[in-house]
Amino acid sequence: MKKYNFNAGPSVLPNETVKNTIQAIENFAGTGLGLMEVSHRSKEFQAVVDEAVVLFKELLNIPEGYSVLFLGGGASLQFCMIPYNLLEKKAAYLNTGTWANKALKEAGLFGEAVEVASSKEANYSYIPKKYTVPADADYFHITTNNTIFGTEIHTDIDSPVPLVADMSSDIFSRPVDVSKYGVIYGGAQKNLAPAGVTFVIVKDELLGKVNRPIPTMLDYRTHIKDGSMFNTPPVVPVYAALQTLKWLKALGGVKEMYKRNKEKADLLYAEIDRNKLFKGTAAVEDRSLMNICFVMNDEYKGLEDDFYKLATAKGMVGIKGHRSVGGFRASTYNALPKEAVEALVACMQAFESQHK
Ligand SMILES: *Cc1c(COP(=O)(O)O)cnc(C)c1O
Questions:
Q1: Residue 5 included in any domain
Q2: I need a surface site. Which of 69, 76, 89, 110 has the fewest CB within 10 A?
Q3: Is the pTM above the cut of 0.90?
């Protein structure tokens, strides 16, 4: 049976990414050797890294003065690398959920970490809009898409201090004005590649200002200087990321992606709002285009297991909500075809007619 992959991460990737990577694992760039069995310093692999950097810059329209890095450690390592490299005295954080919270906690190890606002009291169901970023903060950290709670910051906000953004789960889903950011980072395993590689886009002029020794591997300058080749990069995930970037470019880039993502999300939210059995959990204006969270209306709560069973029988995978929200979460990342969302909507309608 056809499976529809709504997993939150690791998650669905383009067919091309999977097929090309399998092929390269067997025979990389015509070398007759497998991708996992050649030197990362070979000219063939260097070409992969170079092209991935070029495509990052092209697809996101990254201005001069920024570096693109491919590192290990996941987005979670960035939670400490960012304050290590940028926090001298004080940093500001917007607390919009689990990941934002983890980032905030790490910053506290390096200096004063100010929580400018939080939506914790409402189980992170909205993005706080009224807050003041201290003018003397070294940076302001946001999480643009809250994977667990299904909220998203849809615009590139204005910040009085360098803006640092965790874009793990919405990178390449829409156009972004990179010039408004000091750092953009994320784990690859939501919208780009298998787990193992972390992308970091960093404005060079922000570095070298803190007064503390930084371990070599945790210093962005090490990786800028050596073009992400200070040590062995995760070669297979980097190769896969390049395939996804090529796929994105061929489809028309982030503008086209945004159009498709909006169509998919509109379709599912319209059904959530129409269907009397279900309701969305996120504030309407902050609804994520990538992670769509919904629960059963109170009078139908007892039917959640039945709906889950029906959806599973119809090929839906990964729609169980995160334990901190409950209900359901459909992740509609770039590589998820519209057909999958249509199948889920049809399933919700079929379930409704069974319970008239
Ligand atoms: C998944 C996720 C993370 C964690 O990423 P790792 O690469 O597993 O460390 C951090 N932030 C957001 C927004 C995420 O979705």
A1: no
A2: 89
A3: yes
